[in-house]
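Incident review: delayed structure delivery

Summary: a single-chain prediction request sat in the queue longer than the usual turnaround. Root cause was a stuck worker, restarted by the on-call engineer. No data loss occurred. The affected request and its eventual output are reproduced below so the record is complete for anyone auditing the incident later.

Affected input:
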Amino acid sequence: MTKKYIYVLASSNKEANPDKSEEIFQISRKNYQINHLWTIKVWNRSSYYPRYFHNACFINSHLMYVTFHNASKGLYEYWKLSRNGNTWMPTEIGATQSDFVKNNSPLQGFTSSSSKFYLAFNDNLFIITHPGKLIQHYQFHTLRETEGIAVENDRPYIELARRPELLQIKKQQNKKELIITN
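Output delivered after worker restart:
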């Protein structure tokens, strides 16, 4: 979200890796009407290797980061999409060599801040550099799904499902402290 617009990447979370197009909506915060609609389709080197994104983080009106789970190779790819005029240009910026979780849990939260990516799964948070190197892993036991993630001043906040609660992650002298706040 920016001061003027809300951005949405519209995709079907039930699709594994189709060769379908996706849409980016630019919605006016003034009247909540669609101001602009872009259709995007991304592939890696060839149309035989489509990239269908389920998670995006919009930095501003001209930059967003997206992640693609390449299940066949067991990794996550990170892409930067930059807008020039009415064209979004994709660039792969990195990849991790891990699925992170082994229970086929989908990525439930994705954001970027200070040249880091934050990936949230059920009871797991991974902090990754933009090229794809793991910096930190947090594991907690809430027994609840993650609904989303936000970062402020390098401090992650995870929204938990069922009741409106935030999981605030604090780092203090090599100690990881997880606090649930209402």
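Verification: The first strand starts at residue 5 and ends at 10.
Action items: add queue-age alerting; document worker restart procedure.
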